[in-house]
Specification:
Layout lengths: L5 H6 L4 H5 L6 H8 L6 H23 L6 H21 L6 H15 L8 H20 L4 H75 L4 H26 L6 H15 L3 E7 L5 H22 L3 E8 L3 E8 L16 H12 L3 E6 L5 E8 L10
Parallel strand pairs: 1-2
Antiparallel strand pairs: 2-3, 3-5, 4-5
Helix pairs in contact: 4-5, 4-6, 5-6, 5-7, 6-7, 6-8, 7-8, 8-9, 8-11, 8-12, 10-11, 11-12
């Protein structure tokens, strides 16, 4: 990709004074006046002054958005009439008025709104004035070579000017689009980081709370066990600190196997019997990481809200999709939050992750009692982990 500085290009885009400069071309009909070949002199000078005024007016009103577009159109029509009358009346070098007329036309066409389809504005504007130049030359008795030169100069000036202005309009649009994309990327990264932080700390802090409650309950009765639980709290806290550092550096999780091992330990510490089953071939990295996040969120939900005595975690991969089920025998939907429920930040964040991988999340009462979280993703999903 070329290294383009769109801001610089846009700032250095053509302004009205660039096109006013080309009035220097009027030196040729002025030379005819000075040589006495354009008479009466007062009429020739007046024609040049009026033409120059209209040229500046067309450019000024085309660049100034305060003027409705019909204003430069009327001024351009008047400029074309002056160019045609003066060229027919004085001939000679006066045909050089038409390339200037083409320039004015290009400025106007370059500022006209484009609504798709053929460039009718360019065809009508540039095609019209270039045809007028050839018609005036033919009426003035010019030969074929001169007619071709007049037509080509007028058409080229109009087309090149219009294309340049359209190009810089596109550059401006690209700059605006780039800024919008940058803002969207920042917003997505903030959302990703907030989800990561919630998933990391929600699980870990829930485990620390459970262990702290155990310490409080058994501190007087069994100090040795309480001391071990306190040591576990310290270990979990250090792991949480490490995970937060990894999240800040862009890490997306420890994968499905690591999360299943952590889930077994966390559930056992919370007094929940765990049964974990996994079938099917190894999963791609993206799917593996995404289901790891799902296990973390599901187990956190069980520890926090369920009051369950048993939890089944099942992972199945059958070639084209992978399914995770986290089922417990706790309080059903009471105190839980489905993916779309108000306040269910964890499952809502998980649903957003899974949606980016074209997967689905279902959460609600399980058949026969308890609560069931089901996450289904394509086995080849590579986008969901970490929320992009």
């Amino acid at each position: 990709m070329p290294d383009l500085d769109l801001d610089t290009l846009d700032r250095e885009g053509p302004r009205g004074h660039v096109f006013v400069f080309w009035l220097i071309i009027l030196v040729w009909p002025l030379w005819d006046v000075a040589q006495g070949r354009a008479r009466p002199v007062w009429l020739a000078v007046a024609a040049l002054l009026v033409f120059a005024f209209l040229h500046v007016a067309v450019i000024r009103t085309s660049f100034d958005g305060r003027f409705p577009i019909r204003v430069p159109i009327v001024l351009l029509t008047a400029q074309a009439a002056v160019a045609a009358a003066a060229s027919l009346g004085f001939q000679g070098r006066w045909y050089t008025l038409f390339p200037l007329l083409g320039l004015s036309t290009g400025v106007l066409v370059g500022h006209l709104p484009r609504r798709g389809g053929p460039e009718l504005a360019m065809l009508a504007g540039v095609g019209g004035v270039s045809s007028l130049s050839a018609l005036v030359g033919w009426a003035g008795g010019e030969d074929g070579g001169a007619l071709a030169a007049i037509w080509y100069g007028t058409a080229t000036a109009g087309v090149v000017t219009a294309v340049i202005l359209r190009l810089f309009t596109v550059i401006g649009l690209l700059r605006d689009a780039r800024e919008e994309l940058a803002e969207a990327a920042v917003a997505r990264e903030r959302l990703r980081f907030s989800r990561d932080l919630h998933d990391l700390l929600g699980h870990t802090l829930s485990l620390m709370v459970v262990k702290a409650q155990a310490v409080r309950l058994i501190a007087e009765r069994d100090p040795a066990v309480a001391a071990r639980q306190a040591a576990d709290i310290e270990t979990v806290g250090r792991e949480a600190l490490d995970e937060v550092r990894q999240a800040v550096s862009g890490y997306r999780g420890r994968g499905l196997a690591g999360e299943l091992d952590a889930a077994r330990t966390a559930l056992a510490d919370a007094g929940v019997e765990a049964a974990i089953r996994r079938t099917g071939p190894p999963l791609p990295a993206g799917t593996d990481a995404l289901l790891g996040w799902a296990v973390r969120e599901g187990v956190t939900n069980v520890i926090r809200h369920s009051g369950a005595a048993h939890c089944d975690i099942t992972v199945r991969a059958d070639g084209d999709r992978a399914v995770l089920e986290v089922r417990d025998d706790g309080a059903g939907a009471s105190g839980r939050h489905g993916p779309g429920a108000h306040g269910g930040h964890g499952l809502r964040g998980l649903s957003e992750r899974v949606a980016t991988a074209d997967g689905t999340v279902r959460a609600g009462p399980a058949p026969g009692g308890g609560f069931l979280l089901t996450v289904t993703v394509p086995a080849g999903a590579a986008r969901g982990a970490g929320g992009q």
